[in-house]
Design a protein that fits this description.
- The complex is a heterodimer of chains A (240) and B (255).
- With 240 residues, chain A is of the alpha/beta class.
- Helices cover 38% and strands 25% of the residues of chain A.
- In chain A, a hairpin with a 2-residue loop joins strand 1 and strand 2.
- The longest helix of chain A has 16 residues.
- In chain A, 46% of the residues are buried.
- Chain B starts with a helix and ends with a helix.
- Chain B contains 10 helices and no strands.
- Classes of the chains: A alpha/beta (240), B mainly alpha (255).
Chain lengths: 240, 255
């Protein structure tokens, strides 16, 4: 579904991604772990071109994302993204947060989008918050709304950039629960996270990134039980 | 009152001595009441407000366009540089540099006596000059406001597939407006006071009226003090109105 070939990204002289080759298949739940600075967030942000790769080719369902002629707005509509800091729009209600993009991109009429928003709000367990403003919600609620907002575009794949890292510990569970349900529904997901429990339980594949490359990957059972790379062993011994 | 004035005036002109209060009365009467001069001040205030409003509209529109173009230029993805945008951005950069780098008075004189030397509509030329001047400052204020909005907001909008224009319009600009309102209010007050400068090219605003009266009566103190007082009152009124407006905005801001 998403194919990455020799992806490189430098910020100035600092090379963050040093050649990544990866293929993400439809329905897969890929969890990316690694120490901070290993390039995992940059990798994720390159997938929907929030970061412009320095070199390399990314294709999604046959369409080359990195080609300058590609309509990136169209492609991004197919890739939902959830951020560490939620990035809800503080100047509008929750309903409008969710419906703005579908309506403005011509995907839905306002009435249709409103209906879809209520559906999604029920799904994330916050149907009574439609007319609230982001500032009135807790961190966990904000992130659930952010997930609903991304889902409103009916994306083919969801990208999660450390979705629980900015949350108070007691709110992590509610967000992971929503993500788990989403995974069970068959959504293709790429998740950058430090939640090893989530990786073990939900992932179909776990990638370990270290120093700008994918140093090791495996299905979660073997990944955690029998790590090969010494850096990964070291990393796991610190976080588990 | 008019009789008392005539009586005292004839005493003064025939070499008689007036007491302090009598002399104050004569000068004050001359400055504001004789020959219905207060109407001239009032007309001046009206023209001042008109010039301010015109200049404000020009300044804000110009400032917004310049700010959006310059921000859009700076936020282009590498490898996707738009040639037209680069040229316009360059022109706008020259505009802000020249306008901010030369005194307002000089700009007025050039506009009034060089570029629009044949125009007799001094107030309009003055308003245009003030608007162009204000636009350069307003553009920097707005640019600062746009840049101050968290970059995650733009990323969120774009990641949902919305284009740059829509993201700016619905997400970034509304948040920036709230942040720049105090600075914009300040610019507005400066503009109101700077309208007094257009009297140098013959714009008939408040100070022009006062100067006319001074040259008629050979008495500078009361017309100028009166003018200062009028400006002060105008600014105080606008400060109060702006404060009210800001409070209203903050009420709807439920962050």
């Amino acid at each position: 579904m998403i194919d990455v070939k020799d992806l490189r990204k430098s910020f100035g002289d600092h090379e963050v991604l040093k050649g990544i080759n990866e293929h993400i298949y439809k329905g897969e739940k890929v969890v990316v772990i690694g120490a901070s600075g290993s390039g995992k967030s940059t990798f994720l942000r390159c997938l929907n071109l929030l970061e412009q790769p320095t070199s390399g080719v990314i294709t999604m369902e046959g369409q080359q994302i990195t080609d300058p002629k590609t309509d990136i707005n169209k492609l991004r509509q197919k890739m939902g993204m959830v951020f560490q800091h939620f990035n809800l729009f503080p100047n509008m209600t929750i309903r409008r947060n969710i419906t703005l993009a579908p309506v403005r991109t011509g995907l839905m009429k306002q009435a249709e989008a409103d209906e879809r928003a209520m559906q999604l709000l029920k799904r994330v367990g916050l149907p009574d918050k439609a007319d609230a403003y982001p500032g009135q919600l807790s961190g966990g609620q904000k992130q659930r709304i952010a997930i609903a907002r991304a889902l409103a575009m009916n994306p083919d794949v969801m990208l999660f950039d450390e979705p629980t890292s900015a949350l108070d510990p007691e709110m992590v569970g509610e967000v992971l629960q929503i993500m788990k349900e989403l995974a069970e529904d068959g959504m293709t997901m790429v998740v950058v996270t430090h939640e090893m429990g989530f990786a073990r339980e939900v992932a179909s594949r776990v990638l370990f990134m270290d120093d700008g490359v994918i140093a090791e990957q495996n299905e979660p059972g073997a990944f955690f039980a029998n790590p090969q790379n010494p850096r990964l062993r070291d990393f796991l011994s610190k976080v588990l | 009152m008019a009789e008392l004035f005539e009586q005292l005036k004839s005493v003064a002109t025939s070499g008689g001595k007036l007491t302090g209060w009598q002399s104050f009365f004569v000068k004050f009467y001359q400055a504001f009441i004789e020959a219905d001069r207060w109407k001239q001040y009032l007309g001046g205030v009206g023209r001042t407000l008109w010039v301010t409003a015109m200049a404000l509209v020009i300044g804000v529109i110009l400032g917004l366009i310049v700010a959006v173009v310059r921000t859009a230029h700076d936020q282009q993805r590498p490898g996707h540089r738009n040639a037209v945008l680069s040229i316009v951005n360059f022109i706008f950069k020259i505009y802000t540099t020249v306008i901010r780098g030369t005194p307002m008075m000089v700009q007025l004189l050039i506009m009034g006596f060089v570029i629009f030397a044949s125009s007799k509509n001094f107030a309009l030329v003055g308003a245009l000059t003030l608007g162009i001047n204000s636009g350069a400052y307003v553009s920097e204020i707005i640019r600062g406001g746009l840049m101050a909005v968290d970059s995650g907001q733009m990323e969120a909008g774009r990641s949902l597939g919305m284009n740059y224009t829509d993201t700016m319009r619905f997400i970034i600009v509304p948040q920036a407006v709230k942040a720049i309102l105090p600075a914009l209010g300040n610019e507005f007050i400066m503009l109101l006071k700077d309208t007094s400068l257009i009297s140098v090219i013959g714009g008939k605003e408040l100070l022009y009226a006062a100067r006319g009266i001074v040259s008629r009566t050979y008495e500078a103190m009361y017309p100028f003090l009166g003018t200062a007082a009028i400006y002060l009152v105008l600014v105080m009124i606008f400060t109060w109105l702006l404060g009210k407006f800001e409070r209203r905005l903050r009420q709807s801001d439920r962050r």
